[in-house]
């Protein structure tokens, strides 16, 4: 049985209030500035850098069976900060999980980007996935993120806090 908000520590309540304000601001900004010069608002970055916001966004994508773009973006972020002795292993994992045409979570990349990745997989470096990651980020910013802001996931997250 739910005991209500009074049983939560005050630090949790303060964090929840802050998240509510941020998500409300994202939704408000999106609705005021849906498309500006053909671009969507760049608040996706703020969402991806917020642990709670990221989890709400992930839940939304999972409900649409389209979380592969977010998972790829996160894998690339992890790859970028990995020690050089682990880059080869992580690069192979990213390629087999997201890039390979038979990948279980294949992301939608154009042929040029996909072929470019294949050509450098023998000697991956820290920026191997930068172009592909940016393309997927842009896809999320133009497609998934605006849908998320209009979704019940976003609205529930705003009002649950």
UniProtKB/TrEMBL annotation:
<dbReference type="InterPro" id="IPR044926">
    <property type="entry name" value="RGS_subdomain_2"/>
</dbReference>
<protein>
    <submittedName>
        <fullName>Regulator of G-protein signaling 5-like</fullName>
    </submittedName>
</protein>
<dbReference type="Pfam" id="PF00615">
    <property type="entry name" value="RGS"/>
</dbReference>
<dbReference type="InterPro" id="IPR016137">
    <property type="entry name" value="RGS"/>
</dbReference>
<feature type="domain" description="RGS">
    <location>
        <begin position="43"/>
        <end position="151"/>
    </location>
</feature>
<dbReference type="InterPro" id="IPR036305">
    <property type="entry name" value="RGS_sf"/>
</dbReference>
């Amino acid at each position: 049985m739910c005991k209500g908000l009074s049983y939560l520590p005050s630090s949790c309540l303060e964090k929840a209030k802050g998240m509510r304000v941020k998500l409300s601001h994202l939704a408000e900004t999106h609705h005021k500035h849906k498309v500006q010069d053909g671009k969507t608002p760049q608040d996706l970055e703020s969402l991806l850098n917020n642990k709670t916001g990221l989890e709400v966004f992930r839940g939304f994508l999972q409900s649409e069976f389209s979380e592969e773009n977010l998972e790829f973006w996160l894998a690339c972020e992890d790859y970028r900060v990995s020690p050089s002795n682990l880059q080869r292993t992580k690069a192979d994992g990213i390629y087999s999980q997201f890039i390979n045409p038979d990948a279980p979570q294949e992301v939608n990349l154009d042929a040029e980007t996909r072929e470019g990745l294949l050509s450098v997989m023998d000697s991956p470096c820290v920026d191997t996935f930068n172009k592909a990651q940016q393309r997927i980020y842009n896809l999320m910013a133009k497609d998934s993120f605006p849908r998320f802001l209009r979704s019940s996931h976003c609205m529930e997250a705003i009002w649950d806090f």
